[in-house]
Amino acid sequence: MAPSQGWTDFLAPGEKLLWQGRPAPGVRLGDFLTARLPFGLVFTAFAVFWIMATSAMTQNASMGFEFFPLFGIPFVLLGLHQVIGAPLWDAYERTHSWYAMSDQAAFIATELFGRRALKRIPLADMNALELEDGVEGTVWFKRETQLHTSTTRTKNGLPRHRTYTSQTRTGFKRIADARQVYGLIARQLSRQSQTAS
């Protein structure tokens, strides 16, 4: 999906390319200072404390319990992913991404570990246009809410269902001309709504 291949192969007949660009590579300190940081630090610290406490308790325990502290390792890794892994993955993903905007849709192309993918987001699917302004700003244009259900058993053996939601946002991350692209998308959305009415 490299720019040398061009975007014209992916455009529908009559569709016009309006903008193309790439996200800024690299990691900034601000990438780590997000809402994930406190959760990740607390989660990691608690898991490390749990491993140390259970290690001390199982030193003189009977056979089989000496491996009990090792069950805390996945939780340490999960906490470290929130603190360090997620920002590093985001930087890796941005380094291997290309963006484009036409008069009908946004395109996000990625090439991760040799696998190429192209995501086309039509104007009709853009439900949350937001600008995170800055030297390298982000233009969000789609928000999706996912519903998750987990089932556990009560002491009586009855199923207990818990439901929670999570949100994902799609957009052009860390681009140099974020204001220009935001205005471009806003105009296309306005034209589309005028045409529809």
Would you give an account of this structure?
- The protein is an alpha+beta fold.
- It has one domain (3-196).
- The chain is built from four helices and seven strands, in the order E-H-H-H-E-E-E-E-E-E-H.
- A four-stranded antiparallel sheet has the order 1-2-3-4. Strands 5-6-7 form a three-stranded antiparallel sheet.
- A hairpin with a 4-residue loop joins strand 5 (130-132) and strand 6.
- The longest helix is centred in the middle third of the chain and has 23 residues, at 73-95.
- The relative contact order is 0.16.
- The mean pLDDT is 80.
Per-chain topology:
Elements: E1 17-21, H1 29-32, H2 36-57, H3 73-95, E2 97-102, E3 105-112, E4 115-122, E5 130-132, E6 137-153, E7 159-175, H4 178-196
Antiparallel strand pairs: 1-2, 2-3, 3-4, 5-6, 6-7
Provide a compact summary of the structure:
Strand 6 and strand 7 form a beta hairpin. The chain contains four helices and seven strands, in the order E-H-H-H-E-E-E-E-E-E-H.
Order of helices and strands: EHHHEEEEEEH
Total separate domains: 1
Beta content comes to 25-35%
- Give the beta-strand count: 7
Largest sheet: 4 strands, antiparallel
**Count of DSSP-assigned helices:** 4
User: Alpha-carbon distance between the termini?
Assistant: 36 Å
Structural class: alpha+beta
What is the 3D form?
elongated
Major sheet: arrangement of strands: 1-2-3-4
Low-confidence regions: none
Gyration radius, rounded: 23 Å
Provide mean pLDDT, rounded: 80
Helix content: 25-40%
